[in-house]
Specification:
The complex is a heterodimer of chains A (502) and B (77).
Chain A: H1 3-11, H2 16-24, H3 28-37, E1 41-43, H4 53-62, E2 70-73, E3 83-86, H5 92-98, H6 107-117, E4 125-127, E5 138-140, H7 146-149, E6 168-172, E7 183-187, E8 190-192, E9 197-200, H8 207-217, E10 223-228, H9 232-237, H10 248-256, E11 260-264, E12 270-272, E13 277-291, E14 294-295, E15 301-302, E16 305-317, E17 322-324, H11 334-354, E18 358-365, E19 370-375, H12 382-391, E20 402-407, H13 415-425, E21 431-438, E22 451-458, H14 481-501
Parallel strand pairs in A: 1-2, 3-17, 4-11, 19-20, 20-22
Antiparallel strand pairs in A: 2-3, 5-16, 6-7, 6-10, 8-9, 9-16, 10-13, 11-12, 13-16, 14-15, 18-19, 21-22
Chain B: E1 14-21, E2 27-34, E3 40-42, H1 47-50
Antiparallel strand pairs in B: 1-2, 2-3
Classes of the chains: A alpha+beta (502), B mainly beta (77).
The structure holds zinc ion.
The site of zinc ion (ZN) has 8 residues of chain B, from loops.
Chain lengths: 502, 77
Amino acid sequence: MGTNQTAAIKDVSLSDNALKVAQRIGSLRDFLDFLAEHGQCITWPEAVLPEPDIRDIAVAAGRDAMNGPALLFDDIKGYPGKRLALGVHGSFTNLALLLGHPKGTTIKELFYDIISRWGSDKPLLERVPMDQAPIHENRIDSNFNLYDLLPLYRINEYDGGFYIGKANVVSRDPHDPDNFGKQNVGIYRIQPQGKDIFTLLSVPAHDMGRMIIAAEKDDKPLKIAVMLGNHPAMAMFAATPIGYDESEFAYASQMMGSPLRLTDSGNGMDILADSEIVIEAELIHGSRQYEGPFGEFPGSYSGVRMAPQFKVTGISHRDNPIFENIYIGKGWTEHDTLIGLNTSAPIYAKLKEDFPEVEAVNALYQHGLTGIISVKNRFSGFAKSVAMRALGTPHGLMYLKNLIMVDDDVDPFDLNQVMWALSTRTRADDIIVVPNMPMIIIDPAAEVPGKGHRLIIDATSFMPPDKVGADAQIVSPPGGPKIDALAKVIQALQQEQQGGQS
Amino acid sequence: MNSCPRCQSEQSACRVEHEGRDAQGELVWTVYYCTACSFTWRDSEPEESIVYAKRDAFSRVDLNKQYPVVMPPPNRD
Ligand SMILES: [Zn+2]
């Protein structure tokens, strides 16, 4: 690695360990090895049937949101030699390891780490010629069969097909296909619809939706590259809302502090040189086909719709590729862990612009359908004003449905503390219902799809001119970094004892 | 396999997409695709997913019903 690159990495101001990890992990394979060294990736020891075994095991592993391992399947009945990885971002410990932290790191620490990584504008992108890129080790130009290429399976029992749920899809503005800046990388659900056709679900507001509308209106081709088994920073950071003209590759490399190697796909997109599989495809103009149902992140099935179709035009893959997928459904799932912190951090940043009193934002629950915000209370009712502002942030606009406001002495990531605040500081008339607000269409609690009510619960302390009940003086237990460190010592002693017993 | 487990279209509408075999070449399962309702299934799945009568009513597709169209394509007539 050249000296310029090292200097650029230092600008992100990461810890030595974070830099060490960032430089070691260049691909999904590297990360799975790294996780396995820390006991966070297990290879399933028995042969499994695609259904129902894979979803059963994925759900069981997902129960431990803090410490659940990634799963590697290499013995799937009917798919000899094929490999499938699940739960790669399935626990906060896996995210902690990726960001250079030890096991035992708290969610709140990870939250502040992500915040601290913002501000770097030095993309760390390298270019690899196609003939040297691992992704192009194998090339398929005809006779495609997605059901043969990938070990596909039904994620939830009533899904309409065998979904690909963790693809990073690269596309370029059909009116400006040579502009790297107008290249978009997003995560969209993909349903194979035959050997070489798939539907891709987007809405008009998303980059892909805009591109599909533009391509069909002006009869321009829309080419895409579906990347599977990617550098773990892509899934982690590429879904974070950023401006239309910024490159997700650049953003992910900045946040991770490690260079991402790019190469060309066979159809002229920029793709990751070290990904496992890329499926190149083109929009079939005017075609809509049955898509869904699909068990979505609110834990309910989104219904059948007629969605745009794409036709496969080429496939490249590494030797012995790993198909990475995700379990999505009724929480807690990998999807919740994967997007939770990156949902929380931008809301925090936006609020902080107007209210420096905001301490932390926990929007981990179902993509922020419920959020908990801790704020230094200035006067009676102050937290409600902060909550109203949160509803106007870009993510809050559609997603923040239930908001719980707590004081700055409550860690919003510690639900025991949040319940304490709810139990002792909330009055039944201290809530606000904001009726008939915008809402995501797949929220089952909507009044009509796309519209519903919001709830703000003020669980902050009473401040003048509030009346206060009897015996309201709060105990001030010791807190801060000293107690955080002691909690870790206790955890380590427990682990030591456990290790001694086994 | 006599018909689609989701829309009950006849066998002629159901296409074989892939046969999964073990390392010795023995057939383990077959993947089908219904060209009428786009349902994909594997004949080794639990019956709740692949037997029409056992599927929850919400999960069936009625081909006579109009389903919402995502971003309707421009009308070129
Ligand atoms: Zn059917």
